[in-house]
Amino acid sequence: MKTQANGKIRNLQLEVLSDNWYTLRKANFEYLNKKGKWEQQSREAYDRGNGAVILLYNQEDQTVILTRQFRLPTLVNGNESGMLIEACAGLLDDESPEKAIRRETEEETGYHIQNVEKIFEAYMSPGSVTEILYFFIAAYTESMKQSEGGGAEEEHEEIEVLKVNFEKAMEMIDTGEIKDAKTIMLLQHLRLKNIL
């Protein structure tokens, strides 16, 4: 985990609490508050690496490609089925964001995309997760479909590929069928930029 010295933090000590799946660390440090006093603080940060996400769109058909898969944290927090509709995404695994998202797109959706456009990057849950997510969009056509997708078998992924009308996808945000933040951000980007 990278740490940078800054004038408001001192005596930073990191302790690994778990490295079973990814790495959970506890940080003890002193923080210089706005009154000019040093106060002891403790936080935890989950490090799973950085990731990338992409929304495939077809202007002619006015459709987007989404996925549906099981997400345990949503089940634990009230999603009865644990299934979540989202844009194609994955971890970088020591690749550049662009290379990683091309790989993930083919694995998950079966589309071999030509041109990808990075639109921004964002911390998705900076209160507890270190991840930076790189956001992409790309036009797709049916001729780019090389396989059924579905994810990487060795990663035990069972991903359903969905072709959804763009206006329907926007409605699915309102109805709560789409609750994934990265997907909502990408759909809103397409609307704001008048791409679809």
Short overview:
Helix content is 20%, strand content 38%. With 196 residues, it is of the alpha+beta class.
Report on this model:
The protein contains four helices and ten strands. By secondary structure, it is of the alpha+beta class. The chain has two domains: 9-47, no CATH class; 51-192, Alpha-Beta Complex (Nucleoside Triphosphate Pyrophosphohydrolase). Strands 4, 5, 6, 7, 8, 9 and 10 form a seven-stranded mixed beta sheet that branches. The longest helix is centred in the middle third of the chain and has 13 residues, at 97-109.
Q: What's the CATH architecture name of the largest domain?
A: Alpha-Beta Complex
The count of helical stretches stands at 4
| Total number of beta strands | 10
Largest sheet: 7 strands, mixed
What fold name stands as the CATH topology of the largest domain?
Nucleoside Triphosphate Pyrophosphohydrolase
Helix content: 10-25%
For this structure, what is the CATH homologous superfamily of the largest domain?
Nucleoside Triphosphate Pyrophosphohydrolase
**Order of helices and strands, N to C?**
EEEEEHEEHEEEHH
Structural class: alpha+beta
Radius of gyration: 19 Å
**Global geometry:** elongated
The number of domains is 2
Write down the CATH class of the largest domain.
Alpha Beta
Distance between the amino and carboxyl termini: 39 Å
> Ranges with pLDDT <50 over ≥5 residues?
none
Strand content: 35-45%
User: If you average the pLDDT, what whole number results?
Assistant: 94
